[in-house]
């Protein structure tokens, strides 16, 4: 039997499995109601529209759509994204500043590879997106967390932390943030904080990684421009995706960055996959060109908002007192914090026995915190499943509370 352990790199030994991906394996039992994955609702997929577009793509662009493409991505798609981004307040960018990636996870891995040496420091939220944590930690860095409140990352604590790190000669490389309907907390950073975080990056010579998968899933919030809209020095790398607004199976996302950073990401991507799926790029481009995307996003929001409302109402009905959950104004997740003494990672085993699943809060904390919290996805499940799932979960929480009191 080969002794492979001695052959693996040091980096391979430090890689960790995605908690969410491992949970999804556990929840394959059809009897389990799962709020664990960040999955769009399959009924939101525009199957009939896409059937016609796929036929058109094959007819008009068949030989090109089935061929290798450029590393940066289909020019027509990049130009269409640039035009939409201009309307969102991102000025002075063109399709040349955009790279189409194979999902946002590839973009996160790329920036980790570009900026992080072993032992480097990056700053993230407490809590923050697990995929970002895994991508950055694979490059053997140190992640420092900044607490969130109802307005997202605490900007006052951010600046204090940067000064503290500089005092220890741990110069941070970048700040990673999901400012709009944050995953997992669901909060939105106000414009004043977005401008301030730019000022901080300018003052301390940092990069900002702005991850924006959920910005268009807006149910109640006033529109706030991306952080990138306030970037005058080319410090912000903006990321977004078609996964939440069209189809995750397309594996299409994009980055918007300065000329210099875009060139670096392109070189990095050449070593990863040469090019993103050309066929799905043509489909997404035609979907946008025909004016279908904005209408489709409206339909998604009309579907998800009632599901969010139902989950909030069911929590109030079935959860015992002592929990907190700020109603998210957009996105796909509710972030729940339970009473003192409850560890949601331990409670997960009991939840599975009751055929209901979630993601425990520790998975989203780089400091070991979050033991009382959990993330619940409301976009994927049916209304009946949301109702029944909250009932089951309420029973589990009630049972756990009784053991604490006892």
Report the uncertain regions.
none
The count of β-strands is 13
From the spread of the alpha carbons, the general shape counts as globular
How many separate domains make up the residues?
Answer: 2
How far the N terminus sits from the C terminus, by CA atoms, comes to 52 Å
Written account of the structure:
The strands form three sheets. The protein has an eight-stranded mixed beta sheet with strand order 2-9-8-7-6-3-4-5, sandwiched between helices. The protein is of the alpha/beta class and 406 residues long. It is globular and about 65 Å long. A hairpin with a 2-residue loop joins strand 4 and strand 5. Helix 5 (104-115) packs across helix 9. Helices cover 44% and strands 14% of the residues. It has 13 helices and 13 strands. The model has no long low-confidence stretch (mean pLDDT 95). The longest helix is centred in the last third of the chain and has 27 residues, at 292-318. The termini are far apart. The protein has two domains: 10-46 and 294-401, Alpha-Beta Complex (Aspartate Aminotransferase, domain 1), CATH 3.90.1150; 62-292, Aspartate Aminotransferase, domain 2 (3-Layer(aba) Sandwich).
């Amino acid at each position: 039997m080969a002794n492979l352990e001695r052959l693996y790199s040091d980096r391979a030994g430090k890689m960790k499995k995605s908690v969410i991906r491992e949970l999804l394996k556990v929840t394959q039992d059809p009897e389990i109601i799962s709020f664990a994955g960040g999955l769009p609702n399959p009924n939101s997929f525009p199957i009939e529209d896409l059937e016609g577009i796929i036929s058109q793509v094959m007819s008009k662009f068949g030989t090109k759509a089935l061929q290798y493409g450029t590393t940066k991505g289909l020019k027509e798609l990049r130009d269409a994204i640039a035009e939409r981004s201009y309307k969102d307040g991102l000025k002075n960018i063109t399709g040349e500043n955009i790279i189409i990636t194979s999902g946002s996870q590839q973009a996160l891995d790329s920036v980790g590879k570009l900026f992080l040496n072993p032992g480097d420091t990056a700053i993230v939220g407490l809590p923050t997106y697990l995929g970002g944590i895994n991508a950055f930690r694979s490059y053997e860095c140190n992640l420092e967390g900044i607490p969130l409140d109802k307005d997202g990352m605490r900007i006052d604590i951010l600046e204090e932390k940067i000064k503290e790190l500089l005092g220890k000669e741990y110069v941070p490389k970048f700040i990673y943030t999901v400012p709009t309907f944050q995953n997992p907390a669901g909060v939105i950073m106000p414009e004043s904080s977005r401008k301030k975080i730019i000022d901080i990056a300018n003052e301390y010579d940092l990069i900002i990684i702005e991850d924006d998968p959920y910005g268009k899933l807006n149910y109640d919030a006033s529109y706030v421009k991306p952080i990138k809209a306030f970037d005058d020095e080319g410090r912000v790398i903006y990321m977004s995706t078609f996964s939440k607004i069209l189809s995750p199976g397309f594996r299409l996302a994009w980055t918007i960055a300065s000329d210099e950073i875009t060139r670096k990401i392109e070189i990095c991507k050449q070593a990863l996959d040469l090019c993103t799926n050309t066929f799905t790029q043509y489909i997404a481009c035609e979907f946008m060109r025909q004016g279908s995307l904005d209408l489709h996003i409206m339909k998604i929001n009309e579907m998800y908002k009632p599901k969010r409302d139902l989950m909030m109402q069911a929590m109030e009905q079935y959860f015992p007192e002592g929990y907190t959950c700020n109603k998210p104004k957009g996105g796909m997740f509710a972030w729940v914090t339970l009473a003192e003494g409850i560890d949601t990672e331990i409670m997960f085993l009991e939840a599975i026995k009751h055929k209901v699943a979630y993601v425990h809060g520790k998975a989203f904390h780089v400091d070991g915190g979050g033991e009382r919290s959990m993330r619940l996805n409301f976009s994927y499940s049916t209304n009946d499943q949301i109702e029944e799932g909250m009932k089951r979960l309420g029973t589990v929480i009630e049972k756990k509370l009784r053991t604490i009191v006892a």
